[in-house]
Design goal:
Elements (H helix, E strand, L loop, with lengths): L19 H39 L1 E17 L2 E11 L5 E9 L13 E7 L2 E10 L5
Antiparallel strand pairs: 1-2, 1-4, 2-3, 4-5
Length: 140
Amino acid sequence: MISSQPPVQAKPNSLNQYDKDTQKKIAIGVIAIALLGVLLPLFIFFYPEYQRDQLIKNGLPAGGEIVSIKPTGNTYNDQPQASIVVKVTLENGETFEAETKMIINAIYAPQFQPGKRVKVRYDANDRTNIAIEETESGQR
């Protein structure tokens, strides 16, 4: 008796279901996603410190007084990050307030209290961009 059903075709092997060009594109995509997953968090974590270091190297010096300090809720290596508002005083007597975030070792927290004097560096093009260089006792 002759069967009227079409012959059963074997399913293609999942590794060979794409041509070589498509396999290369998939591999590149997977590698790109993996790299992005590793590099993006590193960039987010280290870039603010890089910016701070660049501002300390290239920024204009000024004196300042801490107006307020509050924790951001973030910790890095068990050291809290704080948001600090500083009243910056330029050499010509002009003042402005700016906010910066920095990681403060708990041992030095008493030196970062309202009323304490600090040395700051600021961006001449964007005065809201400041970095605390050191406290009055020389701590960074």
